[in-house]
Amino acid sequence: MATSTVSPIIMRIMAASIKTSVKAASIIRDVLKTGDLGIVDKSNKNDTQIDPQTLADRSAQRCIIASLTKKFPSVKIIGEEGDSDLNVPADWLVEDLDEAFLQQSCPTEWKDAKPEDFVIWVDPLDGTAEYTQGFVEHVTVLIGIAVKNAAVGGVIHQPFYKHPSGELGRTIWGLKGLGTGGFTQILPPTGQFIITTTRSHSNALHQQALNSFNATQTIKVGGAGFKVLQLLEGKAHAYVFATPGCKKWDTCAPEAVLEAQGGTLTDIDGHHYAYNASVEHINRKGVLATVCQDHAELVAKIPFEVRQAVGNK
Description:
Elements: H1 3-6, H2 9-34, E1 40-41, E2 52-53, H3 55-71, E3 76-79, H4 99-102, E4 118-126, H5 128-133, E5 140-147, E6 150-162, E7 168-175, E8 179-181, E9 194-198, H6 204-211, E10 217-221, H7 224-232, E11 238-241, H8 248-260, E12 264-266, E13 287-290, H9 295-301, H10 304-309
Parallel strand pairs: 3-4, 9-10, 9-11
Antiparallel strand pairs: 1-2, 4-5, 5-6, 6-7, 7-8, 11-13, 12-13
Helix pairs in contact: 2-3, 7-8
């Protein structure tokens, strides 16, 4: 009997997500090669900035949701780009599972999880603005796996990560209780405090929060997935985003991967977001993520008036 037929469903969802993220990444690269990104603006009349969506966003989401829906028809899947046409080209439909992942033991706490306990949060192309502007190294494919309220598993794929061999693409995964794979953790430098934060969504409250940390350096990059990778690979100590803006599909996978490695991702009050199917999609209280830090101590550094104001306007 194949490993995949006897593995608990969370292991099969993770193994399918790993394989599916690789195909979605190839679609993202293929769209970029054509030079026609098919950009549309998703923003509404209340938004102050353009919210671009490209053919790559739409196509990668169709690939991911069609593939996962075929394998797990009773699992709820929520994608950034809304409802997707699941009638996809045959070569977009990923049938394989990552057998190497399935060789590992399922953490006891997830063995009995049922399909109805899961929500899969999909950001098919995190960092769309950067993708359209040529900062492709910021782009990630995010597939987050929630069990009931909690983000417990995640896949972060970098379509444009370049290996020494010249091969493109890197898949990073994390499952709470099991650990992480696809990268080697590097600890951030001692004697410094480096923050990673948004390139494009700052405001006065956010800047006030940043100022409260007296950081030795601030790195501005795109995408929640790429920011969390800054923490995991020792380039920053904390990810600070003291404003509403990102959504559950932005943070579910990064939270799971970071916390599987021993870090923490919460809102700026230090509370974890809920990821069940009925939650509001927007993360109204911003994001604070840390590695090798006292998370509660950093929460306390954010001025009370900032924490009170963010998400309440």
